[in-house]
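Lay summary

Proteins are chains of building blocks that fold into shapes. Our project writes down both the chain and a compact code for its shape. Here are two examples, one after the other.
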Amino acid sequence: MKLRLLTGSIIASHGLLRIIFIEKHTDSVYESFYEIIPFETLLLAGSAIFPFVEFFIGLLIIFNLGKKGALLGGFIISLIMSAFIIASGAYLGLIYHVVVIILLAYLYFQQTSTNRKKIIL
């Protein structure tokens, strides 16, 4: 339970910081990824939407709502962002995403094994 709260708090606070500084975030994403994603509108829209999705997923994990879906959604978003970070060569940004991916994978498999134990009993 504490690990779930920690993971959700990390994800929600990261998303919230991106929302608070949304202009700086979108500018940074544009500068880093404009060569990778040729569609400027798609790039700017994605960079503006992802922090809100990240914040929402963090809240879902904190409040234990949509358990597997929230964990899986956070995992997929972190994988997507990791791929873009690797493609842009900004490897320092991988630290956050690798930690989050490990935590989400652990929580997901823990959730899955807990459900299997309930079914067996």
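And here is the second example, written the same way.
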Amino acid sequence: MEKSVFIRDTGMTVVEVLDELAQGYNCDQIVSRIPKLNVSDILASLKFSADIIRQHIISEENIEINGEIVLRAHNRNLIDLTEITKIHPRAYESWLPNEDNQLVDLFKRGHRIKEIAKQLQRQEGAITSRLKKLELIGNKPPGRFSNQQ
């Protein structure tokens, strides 16, 4: 279920206002297109967005926006998926049943975590977490003579 932040009693969401701005409409044009909004609502949406970025994006590096940027909320942080998905295209996506089967098969055949991650196009941490969830490994990483090598 998608969560939204609504503006007062307008039924409009902050994201809808931001989408209008991203399409190039200025405040006056938005208000004329959507009369239930006013300029203060638009400015409040921008302030809310700035506050979210300030509070939740903690990075040692700046995020550079060169067109489209994809962020995802993960463990109460926003993750920049733009670069991660270049290396791991399935990063942070839901696991499909056939992927679980493939993961189990590769793990049981002795493939290393790094190899499995590459084949399933996911991060090594995601593979380890999924193996724990499937109870194929315990909470501690596999030992010296296991698939982790």
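What can we say about the second shape? The chain has a mean pLDDT of 82.
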